[in-house]
Predict the structure.
Amino acid sequence: MLLLFLVFTMLISSCLGSVKINISELISMITYYTGISNVRHFQEQQAAVFLNIRLPRVLRGGMIGAALGVSGAAIQGLFRNPLAEPGLIGISSGATLFAVLMIVLEIGVFKTLKGNLGSYALSISAFIGAGITTMIVHRIAMKNGKTNITSLLLSGIAINALAYAFIGLLTYLASDAQLRNITFWNLGSLGGANWQSVSILLPFVLIPLVALPFLSKSLNTLALGESQAIHMGVAVKQIKTFVVVLSTMAVGASVAVAGTIGFIGLIIPHILRMAFTSDHRLVIPGSALLGAALLTLADLVARTIVSPAELPIGILTAMIGTPFFIYIIISERNKKHIP
Amino acid sequence: MIKVHHLQYKAGQRNLVDNLSFEANKGEMLAILGANGAGKSTLMKLLCREILPSSGNILFNGLNLNTYKLADLAKTRAVLSQSNTLSISFIVEELIMMGRYPHFGQNPVVKDLQVVKSVMEETGITHLAKRDYNTLSGGEQQRVQLARVMAQVYDSDHACLFLDEPTNGLDLLYQQHIMVLARSLADRGYCVICILHDINFASRFADKILMLKNGKRVAYGRPLEVINCENIHETFSIHVKLMPCEEYKCPLVIPAVGFA
């Protein structure tokens, strides 16, 4: 069902925009390029827009949505808290900081990195940034196997503040061209997609998407507590490392290509838990599908609502996500709470 | 089943568990008594292999506990911990199914579903199956957790259950419930080791009692042998009276009046 929804939103999204493509034209395009039919019922310009702009954008948006959704679900499971979200607890800003560092200080280590890794360099440095912040947050917030939610959110605030201070400093140092780049990172955007950026993102998203569902059972037992998970035969330390590496991989790469897109990782798993079950065997793959679908949809809105200009998508997700976040806080507060 | 030899656990300079030896067999219930800070929980952690001993060893079914893989251990021994809060809400059925996780890959088979059904019947919680765990009362939650640990070792011939203060925070009826269930599990052939605070519960339900103070063994043996005023004073620093009661095999223990 979610899969159908995803395919549907992706098709709609690839057809709408300043150049419109209707269903029959789309079908004709597909049959023509797959060699089934050699009749063309579409214009050259439509095909160019569809293949070189729309399709990579929609695919990339979908991948980022899936990445954010799945890592949000995994991180919430790991931290044993439904409020943990990559943006909120500082992971995204850690990734942003490293990405910005990379742009502005094109020196030393970064230059050799870029030399060796080419276009992957930015993704990898964002991944490292995300990884380091996750480790720090985890250290601060976990005590005796329990997440202290106050410390978790406070350390998120602290890390966000620190990261943005450094980003501010780097902004001050940056040249005009670099500045535009940085602003883009802070607001988040799915624009400027091409097939190259799709291929850069692919491995970073695909690996977590395939691997994380295998950790679902372990994440379920972690909901009971760390020692309880150990008693049920789960190698907790390894699972933690896997989750941190895989989800920061996804978040890091997303931030590297699209900047900070908040709240997707918070909302998506929550919707699934409310609608179906908390079982990670459903929540993890479900978050990937729903995340992809909703981000595609949000991107469609972001680029058509003020057409021909476009709204940074990070602004849109924050506007929708923040009220939802407040709602979760209130409903958590009203639940029977045992410390 | 479980044999403990000269077990020692050090934290800094202090011996939290000091030269302990005891054993518990198939079909037996061993109760561990002791004041707060006597090392009961540390001992439990050692027995569950959450932490490793500084010296001495624990034999589990004839093999050193350290040689087991966590995943294999989980198939024969289950632990009911003291605090059982859920960070993310699950329905009762799903939670009990977690007990079967060590036994299946990605999806449960028919057998696992049967076991879940059986343990729910035995613990009398079938009517709660679809309820959200976090909305249950303390007594109901405890029974659900017990059902989960039962499910974990349900079909094992050498099952061992560790219960850490299973009656904590429950009213009299539920305390009784849990203890009767635990006893019936021992009678079925499980080895049950539980930490208790109520001396009368221990002497009534357990086959053997281990009394601890400062990580050291005060007394170890059958209830009739170890429940006496001296041992209890030594363990809990409290003066008690023993009151014989014809229905109980062991005299009841009540605090003496007039002593601090």
